[in-house]
Amino acid sequence: MKLQILAFLLLIAAGCNPSKKMSTPAYTLNGTWVPTKQEMSGNELPAMVYQTQKLVIAYTTYTLIAESTDKGILHYQNGQMDIYGKDGVNAGKHFTAIYKLENDLLTICYNLMGTSYPTSYDSKAGPALFLSVFKRQ
What we know:
Layout: H1 2-12, E1 31-40, E2 43-44, H2 47-50, E3 54-58, E4 61-65, E5 69-77, E6 80-87, E7 94-102, E8 105-111, E9 129-136
């Protein structure tokens, strides 16, 4: 269960402002990203929780490396993401998120319920919101 929550948190970590409708070319987010900050429901997680994690984005696929590996399909544009788990603890799940890429930092705010896109980069706004800030490795 702890592994599932952690993988969920990584997927939901960063945030983007969906009111800023700018298109992100598919290749812009390609690469390996390491978390620098994570919070769930407004509570910042200690660095030891995410210090060995990596998020690898390759066009329309993602691989999250944590205690285990989670893989899936990623669709993103105009500051919104749809994340579909295919292998690992999130297989069969759909998450929604907002994202922004600024100054080489990728911020993703995930809605772990997948019912709607977050409206801000504040995880305090709901119990199922997970915020993660990544830097490119």
